[in-house]
Amino acid sequence: MTVEKAELRPGYDISRVIKGGWQLAGDHGAVDRAEAVRDMEAFLDAGITTFDCADIYVGVEEMIGDFIGDVRRRRGEEVAGRVRVHTKLVPDLGLLESIRTEDVEAIIDRSLKRLQIERLHLVQYYWWDLSLGDPFLALEVLKECQAKGKVAHIGVTNWDVAETQPFLDAGCDLVATQVQYSLLDRRPENGLTDWAARNDMQLLCYGTLAGGFLTETWLDQPDPGFVFENRSLIKYRLIIDEFGPWATFQELLRVLKSVGDKHGVSLSSVATRWVLDRPQVAAAIVGARYSRHLPKTLEVFGFALDAEDRSAIQAVLDGASTPDGPVFGLERDRNGRHGRIMKYNLNTRPDDKVFGGG
Going from the N-terminus, what domains does the chain have, and what CATH number goes with each? Predict the structure, then answer.
């Protein structure tokens, strides 16, 4: 099975499925840390070379760093050097009005230390509220870190055109934008995709399986309401509400299952393939925790959707809805039901020497 690649810039390619890290962080259910770190090597050897994390995904940069360090010791720098790490720079909401340039660079240095690498391959920038403080400050620091060799490429996350354009105008080469994009949430199609094509940016898409809702697990199941063990499921259950009633969601699952059966793959592989085939999409971020999830993850590269498949899926979408407005618009409303479940100050931790005082 050959894993597809995408080139974000000349000389920098990534696997078109990225191993996600959010589900390895706190508040997402129990994680066997040792097994998760050990199993990352199986993904690398299979051709899934790209790993997504963030400064605010508690403990995840350290896990990926332990994996890279272990591979480097056992198999050498050449093998360890195949790994691509996409992290983020997300200053705390509570610090936006007081954060200094040295604070921003300290976050970058901390990520380098945690990840046990000399240069961050891609840093994806987000500022919780552009009306607070100086959001261009962090951008300038990132550009300075590029000049120093600490950062290779810069991207953004959870912004639409209006939020991103000023940073392009400020002279930053933004290679990618990481956004939520799935059969349930097609907000990138409201203008971002076309704009990104005109500005040489590609989409890195999370939420493609809606936190596991777009899997066989939920096929023919009753509506569970909103009582879940983790925030990820609550987040995506809210997205299902925006897509349509539970019955429409079940109709989508049944069509995906039918298409998957036709090709001998899971319905989740069909959902991921649909996203990968959308214009300007470079990669889908899939939250597979352990190597036992690897065979199903790789299925997406073993088949192609045909016109009949696309027509069947589109028929369901035509009868459904999708979240309105810009990318992350609902989530940006901190008083709304999508925004209330977010955590806004995860860069400050009691055990952290950068901002926690530990």
Answer: 12-332 (3.20.20.100)
